[in-house]
Design a protein that fits this description.
This protein is of the alpha/beta class. The chain is built from nine helices and 18 strands.
């Protein structure tokens, strides 16, 4: 709700509504000659007043209106600011697929989370220990009966100290009980569970313990990198580690490729992205990225030549490798922004423009304090691991 209000307030302040096409989906984007051709589709309201994608065969829509639903437009440049919160990443845990099939309203991704009241008096399992898991745990902690957060001890799991006091961290999930499901007959025809009824089977953890009487399972395991409307820049046959193509944007979905500073598409910088980096103060970082794009597109700053952008990109790949960590700015966010602004301001100074200011002193102080807390938590976790294996 707070984020929604922030976005709406920012849009109102900039009077963006007059430029915005609401209820519109981008179907395709491609380069034709010197222009980017964008094809979009309008959503219509059905008889139940719900938004649905229109189709050319929709009999309820007059023929003339149907023809106007698909729109093609030409642009000199394009900014993709849809982020990477689109294609849900679902872990391959034994039994999870079966649970979702039988109780679709009880197993869902954090992308579908809307309000804490939906979990009142319920026992909830959050799979994953990243930002979304912590946010949901904090919101539902005061209304849910029990909240469990499952962590596999991943590199980017947040420290236990950040977890809501009303939530309990547990180990990695090893499986969802399906033995009884397989021996039961006609489960699909069973009556749905009432809201106060938990799922009548157990969830097993790798440490040998089990969770019982769970009402809701929320999968907080993030997203795949994907840009569906740029499908010609996808190559699913290539593994991220083996990607040497100078034009492919997406391979196995763990990262984006061929972007200068995670923003500009190296083969054609008239295509830019805002919101690619992970583990950042999202809107703050995205605003600095937007400033960089605006400076280049308004010709207040020049990009390096393609060979130099390619060299810098390949140097990053050599250091970080492909995969999720490639876009991580964990503990490096201020450094990333300072580097971005140093370039913009150097270019701006040539044109007599005032420098763009970076993070405030207060932001830097809070950021350093958070880094210290993360380091202490990591040391504590490592020490506990040594004690357990001793």
């Amino acid at each position: 709700m707070v984020i929604n209000q922030y976005i709406r307030a920012a849009a109102k302040l900039s009077d963006l509504s007059k430029f915005t096409h609401f209820n519109t989906a981008v179907e395709a984007l491609g380069k034709q000659d010197d222009n980017w051709m964008l094809t979009s589709r309008k959503l219509l309201r059905n008889k139940n007043n719900k938004l649905t994608f229109s189709t050319q065969t929709q009999a309820s829509v007059p023929r003339l209106r149907r023809a106007c639903l698909m729109v093609s437009q030409a642009f000199d440049a394009v900014i993709v600011a849809s982020g990477h919160y689109h294609t849900m990443k679902i872990p391959d845990i034994p039994g999870l697929k079966e649970w979702k099939s039988i109780w679709p309203d009880r197993v869902h991704h954090s992308k579908g989370y809307r309000r804490a009241s939906d979990y009142k008096n319920q026992n909830v399992l959050l799979i994953g220990a990243g930002t979304s898991s912590f946010d949901i745990a904090r919101e539902i902690g005061s209304v849910a009966n029990k909240v469990y957060q499952s962590s596999r001890g991943g590199l980017f799991d947040l420290p236990l100290e950040f977890l809501s006091p009303n939530a309990q961290r547990v180990g990695e999930v090893s499986g969802f009980n399906i033995d009884s499901l397989q021996t039961s007959t006609n489960l699909k025809t069973k009556k749905p569970l009432y809201n106060d009824q938990p799922i009548p089977f157990s969830i097993y953890l790798k440490d040998g313990t089990a969770l019982h009487s769970i009402h809701q399972v929320v999968i907080c395991t993030g997203y795949h990198c994907s840009v569906p409307f740029l499908s010609y820049l996808h190559d699913d046959s290539m593994l991220g580690e083996a990607s040497t193509s100078p034009t492919v944007l997406v391979t196995d979905g763990t990262s984006f490729h061929n972007l200068h500073k995670d923003i500009f598409y190296i083969p054609d910088p008239t295509l830019a992205f805002v919101g690619i980096p992970y583990y950042s103060a999202t809107f703050t970082l995205f605003e600095f990225q937007a400033m960089a794009v605006a400076a280049v597109f308004a010709e207040y700053a020049d990009l390096p030549i393609e060979v130099d952008m390619r060299t810098e990109y390949e140097r990053r790949v050599a250091i970080k490798g492909h995969g999720r960590s490639f876009h991580s700015v964990k503990d490096k966010e201020i450094e990333y922004v300072d580097d971005l602004l140093a370039w913009i301001n150097e270019e701006g100074a040539k044109r007599g423009r005032l420098p763009v200011k970076g993070h405030t002193d207060n932001f830097r102080k809070v950021y350093e304090n958070r880094k210290q807390l993360m380091r202490e938590s990591l040391l504590k976790r490592n020490e506990q691991g040594r004690i357990q294996t001793a």
